Amino acid sequence: MHTPVLLNEVLEYLLSARATPEASARRGGRYIDATMNGGGHTLAIAERVQPDGVVLGIEWDTTLFQDTESQLANHELRKNLILVNDSYVNLKKIAKDHDFQPDGILFDLGLSSWHYEMSGRGFTFKKDEPLDMRFNPSGGVPVSEIVNLYDVPELEQIIRDYGEEQFARSISESIGLNRKKRPIMTTEDLVAVINVAVPDWYKHRKIHFATKTFQALRVVANDELGNVVKGVRTAIDILKPGGRIVVISFQGHEDKIVREIFKEQVKAGRIIQPVKGTIRPTWPEQQQNPRSRSAKMKVAEKV
Ligand SMILES: C[S@@+](CC[C@H](N)C(=O)[O-])C[C@H]1O[C@@H](n2cnc3c(N)ncnc32)[C@H](O)[C@@H]1O
Q1: DSSP symbols for 144-203
Q2: 60-119: per-residue pLDDT in tens?
Q3: For ligand 1, atom 15: residue with the closest CA
């Protein structure tokens, strides 16, 4: 199971909202986990708010959602959970459908270990799989379509902007040249095309030479940055006064978006920031869970 990141910090900051100051009120609190995955954070929050509290967990990936739903079917906390297979961009409708005004909302952005290890959708260059990388095939654009159909300058911009890849130009040119010979349909095809576009020294570094290109393409396939903007804004709209929003991001772009939305909403007098700046995992957590190393958490409270 995916290890939940910054778990103690999430519980501390999400559950100490002004909306739910008393332990007894907290027990009846209503929380949304906008990125449920296997339910790590969801269950920990539910444990804290039981017997009367409810956590509404949202997961966009249908296969992953079904796995989680069946794993939780007989869980002792199942009665404290509402599980929804949708994108958090539809938060307003989801909350309305369930008559749910939350005391707190958590976003733990990005993807999970499950996507790399189990999805079979090409999220990792370590396996040869079809190039898709969508969380949900009913939305977004498969990466195979992006690399085979987008203009080379557009690909260069995507790889530079979202991957911060210094060889964005030569990689996009290599994509353009190679796809004329044969469409790029698998992760192995894409790695081969990147391999011929980057210098040898770049292949001997700690970070794999395809990492940044894969990340950039995944962000576009799922419109991840657009989703964060919509999701975080809507979350602030639907929170109870005094309720809290906690966002964990793993990429600089996402963290910047959250920082800017919070800044603008503070200016508008809609939120305050009970903790200024960014909360990072402790050293022991970083040692135990290497994935946590790039995590950055921000907290805001609705006025
Ligand atoms: C980092 S994981 C969350 C891990 C989770 N907190 C846990 O403890 O197991 C992010 C999850 O968000 C899901 N996701 C990504 N975009 C989403 C969206 N727009 N709406 C809902 N879920 C989304 C991914 O499929 C993934 O399962």
Answers
A1: HHHHHHS-HHHHHHHHHHHH--TTHHHHHHHHHHHHHHS---BHHHHHHHHHTTS-GGGG
A2: 999 999 999 999 999 999 999 999 999 999 999 999 999 999 999 999 999 999 999 999
A3: 110
Ligand 1 cavity residues, CB under 6 Å? 2, 4, 34-35, 37-38, 40-41, 58-61, 64, 87-89, 108, 110-112, 135, 227
The verdict on pTM exceeding 0.85 is yes
Sequence-ordered list of residues with C-beta below 8 angstroms from that of 80, at least 6 positions apart, any chain: 46, 49, 50, 51, 53, 54, 55
- Match 């890849």 to its residue by tokens: 165
Pairing verdict, β 296-302 and 271-272 = antiparallel
- All domains of the chain, ordered by start, with CATH? 7-114+224-302 (3.40.50.150), 141-221 (1.10.150.170)
Binding-site positions read 39-41, 59, 88, 108, 115
